[in-house]
Design brief:
Blueprint: E1 2-9, H1 14-25, E2 33-40, H2 46-59, E3 64-70, H3 73-77, E4 82-85, H4 101-118, E5 124-127, H5 132-142, E6 151-154, H6 156-170, E7 177-178, E8 181-183, E9 191-193, E10 198-199, H7 204-207, H8 211-223, H9 225-233, H10 239-254, E11 260-264, E12 278-285, E13 288-291, H11 299-318
Parallel strand pairs: 1-2, 1-4, 2-3, 4-5, 5-6
Antiparallel strand pairs: 6-11, 7-10, 8-9, 11-12, 12-13
Helix pairs in contact: 1-10, 4-5, 6-8
The structure holds nicotinamide-adenine-dinucleotide (NAD) and (2S)-2-hydroxybutanedioic acid (LMR).
(2S)-2-hydroxybutanedioic acid binds next to helix 9.
Amino acid sequence: MKKVIITITGAAGNIAYSLIFRILSGNIFPADIKIQINLLDIAESLPILKGVKYEIEDCAFPNLDNIITTDDPGLAFTDSDYILLVGAKPRFKGMQRADLLLDNANIFQKQAKIINECVDKNTKIIVVGNPANTNALIVQYFASNIPSDNITSLMKLDQNRAKSILGNKLNKSVTEVSQLVVWGNHSATQFPDLNHANVSNSNEAILSLDADWVNDVFIPRVQKRGAEIIQHRGKSSAASAASAIYDHLNILINGSNDWESMGIMRDNTYGISNEIFFSFPLKISNSNISIINELAISDESMKYIKDTEKELLTERDIIKDILKN
Ligand code: NAD
Ligand code: LMR
């Protein structure tokens, strides 16, 4: 029997409560592959994890191999094929994601050191806990045995939001929208870029958009959608985040015909630092992520791209002392 091991941290939290069930009921893996799911949370949350485990069992998922619930990161990470680093504090109304940096950095530093000891170098790590791009940098630094190409941060939620907001505006299905990517940080400086996007394989509908709508509605709405959800729900996005993590994992494993967005740390032709996790336009096939380099970028777009890079460099500077430990 073939099996994969997927570890989810923060498994007693809000995102995990959707994510676990999306993964186990989804079709990322062929039917003959069984899934072992390792659920990690802190000791205080173990009673909740027991309830989550019982609920998973009650779903009678045909592809479920085994469930491990634990507060021991070593046990959770050992032999994992995929590690989804979700466990971290979320922000509340009025906060920026970067306000979480110092609180959450500690979690990612400790877990990365353990990952470095007990995980194979082919393990793929997806960083979700905020601020996701800079937490990915912490993981990359402390889990140096894992090639940085195997570490990505979640930007798919932003890309999905951008596609949906555009689709609603044009009264088109998201399936007709392609090549719509999000550059930079998972934050209010991110740049959802319509300049290369197509609707039904043509840029005609995009060119017909009013520039005021693009600049004053579309871009800020995507940038601040997370805060808008918190405003209404009182807590941060969970089901949509889980859905985006599912998409991200699926694309990493099964590839995509469209352009994608993920935070990665790479050389590139856009003059963006290769010392931060930055979201670029990407092609992904056979688990190989490549940047779509040398796109024509207008001065106006480059200003957005540089602003979001600047924010990530500032976040990197804030954690410089942590990276010395
Ligand atoms: P939550 O508070 O509901 O759950 C977080 C869980 O993590 C809790 O169960 C907590 O006990 C656990 N946890 C804390 N420290 C831990 C540790 N050291 N090891 C293991 N588990 C630990 O939060 P949530 O809504 O599930 O969100 C989780 C994170 O994801 C937050 O940082 C949130 O901001 C972020 N997020 C990111 C995106 C994105 O697109 N990148 C989207 C949504 C949310
Ligand atoms: C989101 O974009 O919904 C998440 O990053 C949660 C948040 O803090 O906005």
